[in-house]
What we know:
InterPro entries: Glutaredoxin, Thioredoxin-like_sf
Shape: elongated
Helix content: 40-55%
Strand order of the largest sheet: 2-1-3-4
Pfam families: Glutaredoxin (PF00462)
Domain Glutaredoxin: 70-127
Protein name: Glutaredoxin
Amino acid sequence: MKRPWTPPILLVLCGLVVAAGPFREGDPGIGAAVVAAFAVLAALNSPLIRPRSISASEAAQRSERDGRPVVYWRPGCAYCLRLRLRLGRGARRLHWVDIWRDPDGAAAVRAANGGDETVPTVVVSGRPYVNPDPAWVRDQLSSSA
C-alpha cells in the first residue's frame, strides 16, 4: 500500500531541488514559478483532493443499502480527478474504492473491463460504466437519493 502523502511530498521536494538552480543564479522569479508549479502538482495528488476510500466489499454493501453508485479509481488518474472535480460536493455521497489500495476493487475493475484496470469505473445497480460523463453520474446520484 502506498502512503497517501508520499507523492505530494516528493513533488514538493523535487520542485525545491529544481528551483534551487534559478535561485542560486539570482533569478527568483523563475525559481518561484517552478516551486509554484510543483506545489500545484502536489496539491492535485494530495489526499485533500482525493476522495476517502473504502474497501470494495464495504462499498458494495453500502451501495446495496442506499442505492448510490460505487466509483473505482486510482491516484494520479486525470479522468478520476476530472470526475471528482466536476461532481463537486456531490462526489462525497458516492462510494469511492482506490484500486491500488484494495486488491478486490482492482479485481472487480479487471472483471468489468476485460482484464484492464481502466478507471474511473462507476458501478450503478450492479452494472459497470467505464469513464462515464460526470453529468450522467450526477443524474444517477440524484435518482438514488
